[in-house]
# Entry
Amino acid sequence: MLIAATAIAACSSGSATTSSAPTPAPAQSGATMTAKATSGVTTAMITEGDSLFHKASCVRCHGADAKGAQNGPSLMGPTFMHVNGTYDDFVRLIMSGVPADSIKDKSHRFAMRPKGGGQTPLTDDQVKAVAAYVYSLSHK
# Structure
């Protein structure tokens, strides 16, 4: 427990929050603890992102288990096609999308539209929630 609290304190030392001393972290899953150590990510965001991922168009291309499908790569890591694996880079990619001409190996047939595309694009907060969920998948 002390090691986990120390790791969280070390990871969050560059964040905008201030604290006089690190507090012990409650028992959590590894994915949640790691994601929460990332600036601005909360358990609520991960939960909302999970719901959005499975209700929005994300699941159609990346699969229900996020391990990839014919139209989208795996999001489980440890390597990724279009991001460096950080939470902020997942936010950037979901916001901007992936144009068809930038799919290097042509293994996937469709572009990824910005903010999920479709009739009702994701809001900025929803994009951040989906990014938090996807980030948590590869940081367990």
In short: The chain has one domain: 2-18+29-137. The chain has a mean pLDDT of 75. The helical segments are 2-11, 30-36, 43-55, 58-62, 87-96, 124-137.
